[in-house]
Automatic annotation (TrEMBL):
Compartments reported by the entry: Cell membrane; Membrane
Subunit structure as annotated in this protein's UniProt entry: NDH-1 is composed of 14 different subunits. Subunits NuoA, H, J, K, L, M, N constitute the membrane sector of the complex.
EC number: 7.1.1.-
Transmembrane segments: 16-37, 68-88, 100-118
Protein name, UniProt field: NADH-quinone oxidoreductase subunit A
Pfam families: Oxidored_q4
Record's bilayer topology term: Multi-pass membrane protein
Catalytic activity from the UniProt record: a quinone + NADH + 5 H(+)(in) = a quinol + NAD(+) + 4 H(+)(out)
Keyword Protein transport: no
PANTHER family for the chain: NADH-QUINONE OXIDOREDUCTASE SUBUNIT A, NADH-UBIQUINONE OXIDOREDUCTASE CHAIN 3
Originating organism: Pontibacter saemangeumensis
Gene: ndhC_1
Family: Belongs to the complex I subunit 3 family.
Keywords: Cell membrane, Membrane, NAD, Quinone, Translocase, Transmembrane, Transmembrane helix, Transport
């Protein structure tokens, strides 16, 4: 039985597998080559922990305000909406009025969450 136009056969994925194997092979080759040819010098200064050119001092487990984490989580949450908005905008005409109403409901729920966050004062820094 011959495959129809709508069916995919495993050989259709062969170029993707070849590209993946070539990329993986290049990475392994480059890492191995640099490990073998690179200098191997070790010293107390070179092995010391540095962060952005500043010597590390103190405990790494210092308390950090939860507002930092809340802001980061909210950024990711509201940034993910673009994942839904972009395909909708591209296919706006195909979705018609039903798609428009569904997006209105989605944006309403999103804005309700945004106004709740503002009301709670999570974005206010002191």
């Amino acid at each position: 039985m011959e495959p129809t136009v709508d069916q995919y056969v495993p050989s259709d994925y062969l170029p993707i597998l070849i590209q993946f194997a070539a990329a993986l092979g290049f990475v392994i080759f480059a890492l191995t080559l640099t490990h073998l040819l690179g200098p191997k010098r070790s010293s107390a200064v070179k092995d010391a922990a540095w962060e952005s050119g500043i010597e590390s001092v103190g405990d790494a487990r210092t308390p950090i305000s939860y507002k930092y984490f809340m802001t980061a989580i909210l950024f990711v949450l509201f940034d993910v909406e673009i994942i839904f908005l972009y395909p909708w905008a591209v296919n706006f005409k195909e979705f018609g009025m039903e798609g428009f109403l569904q997006m209105i409901v989605f944006m309403s729920l999103l804005m309700a969450g945004f106004f709740y966050v503002i009301k709670k004062g999570i974005l206010k820094w002191e």
